[in-house]
């Protein structure tokens, strides 16, 4: 069944808005938001384009999940509490079953993080999903890319590289058996934003960023913003058992530049090492120290024997990467 524009909004996206940050939600020309006294808004937008950010084979509920997850990950990187989001959706055809499943995946994640859909737009066109999220932090407490300090340790949450491993299988460059492929495909299509970790890091981390375009590039943004450098133990980057079973070259490709991981990379004072470990244990999140911040600019990689090497790899760039 095909839907009209307003049928689509009413059927799939209009819900009762709980009292809170959204004073007036879907149904007016603008949403009316009420900030919490003593807090600052944090706002981020991410666009997902078919063929560039996701494959045509992705299930709609997973696409709905990922569209919001990648935005929640930005809030997590800044230590923000999710509050409201806006959805702009272009569809080749407003198919009721597809839209119902997309909305189910979207709202399941929204409800899990207490974030409310406050408005947006729908139109006909090539499949394109754009989400804008809004979150709050107490004034002056946002985690930024610019706070890394010489001597800080560099940490990574979870594991890196499975999403890129799935992409390599889709591209026909690697092969994995059924359940193994399903595992890395879930990592690619259903990332889990580290919101709770981001909130907890406000009292420990000096800087943070989420891994969307690849570890090398994303950490590079922190180093540039903070005017520092780093030495990273490349083979210490956390990875799944599936990825660890691959060749060293594949492991480094996926962990260093894979992207689409939506884990957090953050820096924290070395004297707080035990506190960071304890935080990971309390949240049930794997946290791995992988290097340190240096005064000398640039990002240096060492192998398992401590030798410097040049990976020759570059992270994803929307206008340069294939």
Total DSSP helices: 10
Instruction: Count the E strands.
Output: 13
CATH class of the largest domain: Alpha Beta
Q: Classify the fold: give the CATH topology of the largest domain.
A: Phosphoribosyl-aminoimidazole Synthetase, Chain A, domain 2
What structural class results from the helix and strand content? Answer: alpha+beta
Strand order in the sheet with the most strands:
8-10-7-11-9-12-13
Cα gyration radius (Å): 20 Å
| Average pLDDT | 90
How would you sum up the global shape? globular
Query: What is the CATH H-level superfamily of the largest domain?
Result: PurM-like C-terminal domain
Summed up, the domain count is 2
Percent helix range: 25-40%
Order of helices and strands: HEEEHEHEEEHHHEHEHHEHEEE
Low-confidence stretches: none
Largest sheet: 7 strands, mixed
First-last Cα distance? 36 Å
**Proper CATH architecture of the largest domain:** Alpha-Beta Complex
- Beta-strand content: 25-35%
Binding site for Mg(2+) 4: 29, 44, 74
InterPro entries: PurM-like_C_dom (IPR010918), PurM-like_C_sf (IPR036676), PurM-like_N (IPR016188), PurM-like_N_sf (IPR036921), ThiL-like (IPR006283)
Function: Catalyzes the ATP-dependent phosphorylation of thiamine-monophosphate (TMP) to form thiamine-pyrophosphate (TPP), the active form of vitamin B1.
Binding site for Mg(2+) 3: 29, 74, 210
């Amino acid at each position: 069944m095909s839907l009209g524009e307003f049928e689509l909004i009413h059927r799939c996206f209009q819900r009762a808005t709980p009292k809170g940050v959204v004073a007036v939600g879907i149904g007016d020309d603008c949403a009316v938001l009420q900030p919490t006294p003593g807090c600052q808004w944090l706002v981020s937008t991410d666009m997902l384009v078919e063929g560039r950010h996701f494959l045509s084979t992705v299930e709609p509920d997973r696409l709905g999940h990922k569209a919001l997850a990648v935005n929640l990950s930005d809030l997590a990187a800044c230590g923000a509490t999710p509050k409201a989001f806006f959805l702009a959706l272009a569809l080749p055809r407003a198919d009721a079953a597809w839209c119902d499943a997309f909305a189910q995946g979207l709202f399941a994640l929204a409800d899990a993080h207490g974030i409310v859909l406050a408005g947006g737009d729908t139109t006909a066109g090539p499949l394109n999903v754009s989400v804008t999220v809004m979150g709050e932090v107490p004034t002056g407490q946002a985690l930024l890319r610019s706070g890394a300090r010489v001597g800080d340790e560099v940490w990574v949450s979870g594991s890196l590289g499975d999403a890129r491993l799935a992409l390599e299988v889709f591209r026909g460059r690697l092969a994995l058996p059924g359940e193994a492929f399903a595992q890395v495909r879930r990592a690619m299509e259903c990332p889990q934003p580290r919101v709770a970790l981001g909130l907890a890091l406000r009292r420990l981390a000096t800087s943070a960023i989420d891994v969307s375009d690849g570890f090398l590039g994303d950490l590079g943004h922190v180093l540039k913003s903070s005017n520092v450098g780093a030495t990273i133990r490349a083979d210490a980057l956390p990875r799944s058992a599936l990825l660890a079973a691959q060749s060293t070259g594949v492991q480094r490709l996926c962990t260093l530049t894979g992207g689409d991981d939506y884990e957090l990379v953050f820096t924290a004072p070395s004297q707080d090492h035990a506190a960071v470990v304890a935080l990971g244990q309390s949240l049930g999140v794997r946290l791995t120290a992988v290097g340190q911040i240096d005064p000398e600019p640039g990002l240096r990689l060492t192998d398992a024997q401590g030798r410097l090497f040049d990976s020759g790899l570059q992270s994803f760039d929307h206008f340069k990467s294939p």
